[in-house]
Amino acid sequence: MDPYALKTLNAERRARRAAILVTDLGDGRDRLVREGDSVAGELGQAIAKAFQSGNSGSIEAEGRTFFLNAHLPQPRLVLIGAVHISQALAPMAKIAGYPLEIVDPRTAFATPDRFPDVALHAEWPEDVLKRQPLDSYTALAALTHDPKIDDFALKAALDANCFYIGALGSRKTHAKRVERLLALGASADQIGRIHAPIGLDIGAASPAEIAVAVLAQTIHAFRSRGLEAKGAAA
Fold first, then answer.
1. Helix/strand/coil (H, E, C) string of the chain?
2. Among 1, 70, 182, 229, which lies 20 to 30 A Cα-Cα from 194?
């Protein structure tokens, strides 16, 4: 591997940004493509698919053979609120391969007894997210119903372009939330990315069912990221 390409790839991985090392198997030359870079033709289509799936492998394009070595950050899920939904969601997310952490300053709720083997922060989101910033490979679900806890985290998720943002509450509750987020400086387009009511519409009623709906929506958002914008552009 070209030393410069390796150095650049390692920098992208440390920053939790996706990149694909493209190797021309005919001449051995390497090329690093970052997510969002424009690559035309058949090779560009194959690279786009690799960013979606995260799968590496050889492909044929423009009469040549390339090996695409995909490096995607592991998606993670941040829950704002140590609530019953979070208790059900934590083991599900682990099974699905989404590292999960929970943030809730209410120490009566955020306890190791209620959340064994979970990264738990009994602090305000402002403090936690300052140390551990969100990014585009993070999903955030706001579950407390408390604007003092949820709103900052939602604004931070919008600014970080998290691949999934969901918020618990009715449409009426969300309408008030929209007003508050606009006052915090979020744009209408940004706010439109929030899934509220949260979760896929499967008729979920219990905390466990809502947890299933939220995880399913998170997975769908991760696997389809960027596709809606491409469809709209077409």
1. CCHHHHHHHHHHHHCCCCEEEEEECCCCCEEEEECCCCCCHHHHHHHHHHHHHCCCEEEEECCEEEEEEEECCCCEEEEECCCHHHHHHHHHHHHHCCCEEEECCCCCCCCCCCCCCCEEECCCHHHHHHHCCCCCCEEEEECCCCHHHHHHHHHHHHHCCCCEEEECCCHHHHHHHHHHHHHCCCCHHHHCCCECCCCCCCCCCCHHHHHHHHHHHHHHHHHCCCHHHHHHHC
2. 70
